[in-house]
Amino acid sequence: MADVPEQQSPEDGRFDLCSLEELQAKGAVPFEFIHPRRGRHQIALFWDGQTVGALDNFCPHEGAMLTYGLVEPGQVLCPLHSAVFDIHTGECLDRYTYDVRSYPVEVVDGRVWVEAPGERHTGPWQAKARWGADGHPRSED
Question: Is 107 left (phi over 0), alpha (psi -120 to 50) or beta?
């Protein structure tokens, strides 16, 4: 699936997760992590057509995976009840539920890096995002 370099737990807490090209093609991509206190969870990368954001991949309302939601400029909509989250800050913009954790992200030499100090990256999550950055369903390739 993702072309993920073998970087399990770098000392600086920065992880090279995928190419920008892959994220642009998929719109949203989840990755498995293990936090020392919170345990297993997913960090999702989102491409809104112009920028990259990184959030915990769940809606606090009922636990839906945000990577299955609609990605729009600057935000992602929960696939269950359309709660709206800012892809950069994790703020629930319509106050439907609680905010989600966001992560610093940057693109360096065509690669997408996320900062998650103290965490361990265990690899890409195996399911694929259903929606592209243009808001249309993706074909399952």
Answer: beta
Q: Which two tokens stand for residue 55?
A: 């959030």
Query: What does the alpha-carbon distance between residue 139 and residue 26 come to, in Å, rounded to a whole number?
Result: 10
User: How many helices (H) and strands (E) in the chain?
Assistant: 1, 10
pLDDT digits (tens, 9 = 90+) for 48-79: 999 999 999 999 998 899 999 999 999 999 99
pLDDT above 90: residue 30: yes
Alpha-carbon span 14 to 5, nearest angstrom:
12
Handedness of CA 109, 110, 111, 112 (dihedral sign): positive
The token pair that represents 31 in the structure block? 């990755």
Global pTM reads 0.81
> Which of 104, 100, 101, 102 is closest to 83 using CA atoms?
100
CB-CB contact of 132 with 26 (8 Å): yes
* Total Cβ atoms within 10 A of residue 128: 17
How many residues in total does the chain contain? 141
